[in-house]
Input
Amino acid sequence: QVQLVESGGGLVQAGGSLRLSCAASGRTFRNYAMGWFRQAPGQEREFVAAISWSGGSTYYADSVKGRFTISRDNAKNTVYLQMNSLKPEDTAVYYCNGAPSLSGVQAMLVFGSWGQGTQVTVSS
Output
């Protein structure tokens, strides 16, 4: 059973930055593509960013492309999301999860149970 613990959220003004972290345990982390997802109040959870098992390939939702950067440290079983130029519409609870393939992450065909997530609030 995989366990995922997200952290690093907070309240930030528009234009600011945050760095989210996701610590994973219970599976061979380095074998899986990982991703970040978010859910705003009253909306469905949506894909944000994905990274391959090696870190060599990444993919982003159009809404965050050029502003967010996903990375991973397999030695630490941790995946990160650097968020710059934040906008009020980025306000949401952010979650991480994984899948056997990059396309699986993009399609949200994830293997883990959803964790508590970390709240990101961007004020205008």
DSSP finds one helix and ten strands in the chain.
